[in-house]
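Risk register update: the risk of archive-format incompatibility is retired. Evidence:
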Amino acid sequence: MLVAENEWAQLFFRPGRSDYTLVTFNERGMVADGRTFWAQALADRLDVNCYGIVSKGPNWFPFEPTRQLLSLVKSDGPVVTYGHSMGGYGAIKFSRALNADVALAFSPQYSISPDDNDGQDHRYAAYYREKLHQNMRVLPTDMGGRILLFLDSRSRLDLLNARNISRLHPVSIVDVPYTNHSTVRACASATVFSQLMDLVRQDSPSGLKRLLKASSRTTDTYYLNLAKALFERKHGRAADYCFERHKNLATTRNRSSVMLEFRLQMAAGNIDAAGATAKQMLTRWSGRPETYCQYAHWQIAAERWQDAQITLGYVEARWPDFEPARTIMARLRRKIPDRGALLGGDRASPSSEDDD
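Archived output:
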């Protein structure tokens, strides 16, 4: 049920029979609707005594308004905070305010200020508001209880955030390999989360690592990221195998998945299949310059010199600061057998439906 709300968030309470109280913080993509909170299905399945705070947008839980809502949280037992990404930040940032015994933070941020994290992490800088997010970065005075950070250590920026957090307070880092920023998917099932809580009580980071390593292998994300890594190491057959596992498990295909399929097709010399995939990307993600660059890569492989020039000219006109387009254009000029094959001028824009 909805307990309270303010300008920035809503607080829910679901009574349960667990001997601990779970406090959940939502991810960036979830918006308060007055009915649901993040991890509600998990709490229902396990009958967990649970509070859920849900932001009214990707606002990274402004401190004072959020603290006021969380002051309404009551518990007779241990308190466990839980969240992923933006929610992982919240699980840490408010752990002391909640007098939490444990914080479970999956792929959390230390801060989204473009000046923090050594100025290297700008993934969420568009959501940063200086007046709203004063003292946004996690501070030692924010942190209480045991802090468990779950991340894929191969994700450079997530690891950077985790290291900055770990300098402030003792933490346990649990590596969840080949999940990238989707670490929480490894414990999405109620069975795995129940086992996770048992291991948290046993204070067994090694057991947590084994559990999440095994459970992550049931997700399409694991096989997609493993396929990427194998492809970059030039293990083509192994990459193809893992990518097929990914496709068999995936319910939807995101841009990263389709992009890797294109790269695998190009590497295997399947030009016709790569062309179909390139056109699919151009149709679905026409607002991204890298999509057109991949389309130009296919046109060059198919020896469609003039079409590639048109595509790259369009990118340079629409995104003049996008350096990869200029790099590919230079490669095109070196590659063509006859400079006369290039056009004197560019058409207005390429089409995903030009001649096959």
